[in-house]
User: What shape does this take?
Amino acid sequence: MANPPRRPTNPMTAAEAAFKPVKKPVAPHREPSAAPGVRELVSIRIDRAVLDHFQADGPGWQDRINDTLRQAIEGKPTGTGSDD
Assistant: This one.
């Protein structure tokens, strides 16, 4: 047979192929950024008193929170608290 038929030979196979469930592609695994100094946008819940403390000095409070957290993980004293 030189030319294949226009219709499939088995209508059941054609129908199953037409209504076959589509597999959703898996989202690619995202590795954390390895570039130094790149900041990640996150949302955290902190106490109002903590927020007020860092915002009291004006703009840059997010940087101050970041610096304090970085010092905490490095084991250095923060120097931003009052020693009562």
